[in-house]
């Protein structure tokens, strides 16, 4: 179960790292997962949390309808994957600079082997009034590269409020 907790922690931290670092103390806090239902498939190394899933750790708050954590077979070079589903999946975290980071999407997928996060369906990342919206937002953790794309019927939308992003004195 410790590795599953690390997966959830990593996912939560990655989600909030798009614009600043997470509260350092969050990583030392216990991970709490509350859901109406939980199931464990030991043969396939899958744990599933369903219905009103709420994950907290320090200032991190994730809400989803369903969270599925899959571990690779023993001896595999691969690492766990985490998928969260919702209408939408939402997450919130307070950053070291005191500002909140928020995000949402219909589906969130995190591959720990590739350290790659994908937000799909009505995806949004937000810090105060600055935000990026698109159909798909990806974040390569190693390269610290964020990409956003949309469908043929819509476009990626970005709103930047420079004084909010740069002003460390202003905290909400």
From TrEMBL:
<dbReference type="Pfam" id="PF03968">
    <property type="entry name" value="LptD_N"/>
</dbReference>
<keyword id="KW-0813">Transport</keyword>
<dbReference type="GO" id="GO:0001530">
    <property type="term" value="F:lipopolysaccharide binding"/>
</dbReference>
<dbReference type="InterPro" id="IPR005653">
    <property type="entry name" value="OstA-like_N"/>
</dbReference>
<dbReference type="GO" id="GO:0030288">
    <property type="term" value="C:outer membrane-bounded periplasmic space"/>
</dbReference>
<dbReference type="GO" id="GO:0017089">
    <property type="term" value="F:glycolipid transfer activity"/>
</dbReference>
<feature type="domain" description="Organic solvent tolerance-like N-terminal">
    <location>
        <begin position="32"/>
        <end position="144"/>
    </location>
</feature>
<comment type="function">
    <text>Involved in the assembly of lipopolysaccharide (LPS). Required for the translocation of LPS from the inner membrane to the outer membrane. May form a bridge between the inner membrane and the outer membrane, via interactions with LptC and LptD, thereby facilitating LPS transfer across the periplasm.</text>
</comment>
<dbReference type="GO" id="GO:0015920">
    <property type="term" value="P:lipopolysaccharide transport"/>
</dbReference>
<protein>
    <recommendedName>
        <fullName>Lipopolysaccharide export system protein LptA</fullName>
    </recommendedName>
</protein>
<comment type="similarity">
    <text>Belongs to the LptA family.</text>
</comment>
<dbReference type="InterPro" id="IPR052037">
    <property type="entry name" value="LPS_export_LptA"/>
</dbReference>
<keyword id="KW-0732">Signal</keyword>
<keyword id="KW-0574">Periplasm</keyword>
<dbReference type="InterPro" id="IPR014340">
    <property type="entry name" value="LptA"/>
</dbReference>
<feature type="signal peptide">
    <location>
        <begin position="1"/>
        <end position="22"/>
    </location>
</feature>
<dbReference type="GO" id="GO:0043165">
    <property type="term" value="P:Gram-negative-bacterium-type cell outer membrane assembly"/>
</dbReference>
<dbReference type="GO" id="GO:0009279">
    <property type="term" value="C:cell outer membrane"/>
</dbReference>
<comment type="subunit">
    <text>Component of the lipopolysaccharide transport and assembly complex.</text>
</comment>
């Amino acid at each position: 179960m410790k590795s599953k907790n690390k997966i959830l922690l990593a996912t939560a931290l990655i989600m909030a790292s798009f614009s600043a670092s997470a509260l350092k103390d969050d990583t030392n806090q216990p991970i709490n997962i509350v859901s109406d239902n939980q199931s464990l498939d030991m043969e396939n190394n899958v744990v599933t949390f369903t219905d009103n899933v709420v994950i907290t750790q320090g200032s991190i708050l994730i809400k989803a309808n369903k969270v599925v954590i899959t571990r690779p077979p023993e001896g595999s070079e691969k690492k766990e994957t985490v998928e969260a589903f919702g209408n939408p999946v939402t997450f919130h975290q307070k950053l070291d600079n005191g500002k909140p980071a928020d995000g949402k999407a219909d589906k969130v997928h995190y591959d720990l082997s590739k350290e790659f996060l994908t937000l799909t369906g009505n995806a949004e990342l937000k810090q105060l009034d600055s935000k990026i919206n698109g159909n798909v937002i990806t974040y390569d953790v190693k390269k610290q590269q964020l990409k956003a794309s949309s469908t043929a019927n819509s476009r990626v939308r970005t709103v930047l409020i420079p004084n909010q992003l740069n002003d460390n004195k202003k905290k909400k």
